[in-house]
Specification:
mainly alpha; 22 helices; about 55% helix; elongated
Length: about 525
């Protein structure tokens, strides 16, 4: 018996062709879309996404006076911190997604798939992009809404706005990298705790004042609740910081791919470029020419006239830093309103309204401006709207009555009552505004009235007279104020005498301006 050997066609025996690059890329993108969809259904990402969106919506819907005049160099930095909510959730969930096959015991099944491990890692890295894009959209919507307000002040920084989305992307990439380095489920939370404790310890050690603070993804340590300053005085390397974050994201992506076996020429080239970008960002954040920056801050604080522009409205001069020139007409309306209630020469005296800041205690530190000794000069700060408007009105009225802000600190008797009437006499809600400008928000007893500078004290008797005046017909009180202007602005006129001149009952009790 003989066997017949049939020749086999070589083309039929050949192994199937490897997938074309376009098909491999399509497979990676398909897996990335699947993983991104799965991320959004994870409870931490879903919960913190809703919390993040709710927090931003709440901030956008709140209605306060100063919100009508947002300082955009503060708004752009304010978009960064809320993104940490989504960043932490994404770090935990991307890590869990990479470790899913290990938890379910299906790691070995990946060996029969055509997709290499590093391509699966790439898909997990790309799955974090939608969260970063959504963060960027939210940041853009929030900032655009503030920037489109008619009273918006200054301009924002693209680098500052990019910090939040890049931080979210960095967190997602870090989660994937940690899964490749230490495939244990508790590692992400341990990483978060270590980073948090390290940040607290660094802050307690005074590291917030050093250059190294810029190695952190988000740097908002110089927003301390004080008044804003011109953006040129901030000294924040926002663009370099954004480059640093982008380079770090790319570098960590490449590290995860290399750990997964992706040692292709493209990955190695991307690693070199990412390392160069990160190094450039780090070097760019290093402080340069700090002496010039400190000199500029000192000039703006001590001699602001050198860096301000001035314009004239109604005989008075209004001087502002460049970013605040659009608010000068609002200042002029307040001055005109207060001066319209004055009598004598005060109704015509030309004032100089000058914007001032104080950087002696640090940039945007919570400090109080000292009263100006220059005659007929009124101070205005860098916040406007809300309670800042009547506080500025008090400053204007004080100068009209006393001649200067410094002299107004020693006011007593009738002059303090006159100042408050100039502020409240043309206000649509005088009693409410009276409480707003007082430190304790009350309209009874002694208290401190807030101004852009040191403030003004009111005795209980003066408060009583002012409150009584707000209940009287405005036209009648205004006529009396103008008719008795000389007596009402004299240091010799007491509060009781002022009450008599203005047609209200004299307050009871002995008055002392030292209380």
């Amino acid at each position: 018996m003989s066997a017949t050997i049939t020749p086999v066609d070589a083309s039929a025996a050949a192994l199937p062709d490897a997938p074309r690059p376009s098909r491999r890329a399509g497979a990676v993108l398909a897996l990335a879309r699947f993983e991104a969809r799965e991320l959004f259904f994870q409870i931490p990402v879903l919960f913190f996404s809703v919390l993040y969106a709710g927090l931003i919506a709440l901030r956008m819907t709140r209605q306060e006076g100063m919100d009508d005049y947002p300082v955009l160099s503060v708004v752009d930095r304010g978009t960064q911190t809320p993104s940490l909510l989504l960043a932490i959730a994404l770090l935990v969930c991307t890590n869990a997604a990479v470790l899913r096959s290990r938890r379910h015991g299906t790691v070995q099944q990946f060996d029969v798939l055509a997709m290499e491990p590093w391509r699966r890692t790439l898909a997990h890295l790309l799955s974090a992009l939608p969260c970063a894009v959504i963060t960027a959209i939210v940041v853009g919507v929030e900032f655009t809404r503030e920037a489109l307000k008619p009273g918006a002040i200054g301009h924002g920084s693209v680098g500052e706005l990019a910090a939040g989305p890049l931080t979210v992307l960095l967190a997602g990439v870090t989660g994937v990298l940690l899964a490749r380095l230490l495939p244990l489920p508790f590692v992400p939370m341990l990483f978060v705790v270590v980073v948090y404790v390290g940040g607290v310890m660094a802050s307690a050690a005074g590291a917030d004042d050093t250059w190294a603070v810029w190695l952190s993804p988000i740097v908002v340590s110089d927003i301390t609740g004080g008044d804003p300053v011109p953006s040129g005085l901030l000294g924040r390397p926002a663009a370099w910081h954004a480059l640093y974050l982008a380079g770090l994201c790319a570098l960590l992506m490449c590290a995860a791919l290399l750990l997964s076996g992706g040692r292709t020429r493209a990955v190695r080239t991307a690693t070199v470029l990412a390392l160069a970008a990160t190094a450039a960002g780090v070097a760019g954040q290093f402080p340069r020419d700090t002496a010039a920056l400190e000199a500029a801050r000192t000039t703006a604080s001590t001699t602001p006239r050198k860096v301000q522009s001035c314009t004239t409205y109604g005989g008075s001069t209004y001087c502002a830093f460049p970013e605040w020139t659009g608010v000068r007409d609002d200042w002029a309306r307040v001055v005109d309103r207060v001066r319209s209630a004055a009598g004598g020469t005060a109704a015509r005296i030309p004032l100089t309204v000058r914007q001032r800041i104080d950087t002696s205690g640090g940039v945007e530190a919570d400090t109080s401006l000292t009263s100006s000794t220059t005659p007929a000069e009124v101070t205005v700060g860098t916040r406007w709207g809300g309670n800042r408007v009547p506080e500025f009105a008090v400053g204007v009225a004080s100068v009209l009555v006393a001649g200067s802000e410094d002299a107004a600190q020693q006011m007593c008797g009738a002059r303090a009552v006159t100042v408050m009437w100039l502020v409240l006499g043309t206000d649509p809600t005088p009693l409410s505004t009276f409480g707003d400008v007082r430190l304790d928000d009350s309209v009874t007893g002694s208290g401190v009235v807030l101004t852009p500078t040191d403030g003004m004290s009111l005795t209980a008797q003066q408060t009583t007279v002012v409150r009584e005046l707000t209940a009287r017909p405005r036209a009648e009180v205004s006529a009396r104020v103008k008719a008795h202007w000389t007596q009402l602005t004299s240091p010799e006129t007491s509060t009781a005498e002022a009450a008599k001149l203005l047609g209200v009952a004299a307050p009871e009790g002995a008055e002392s301006c030292e209380e």
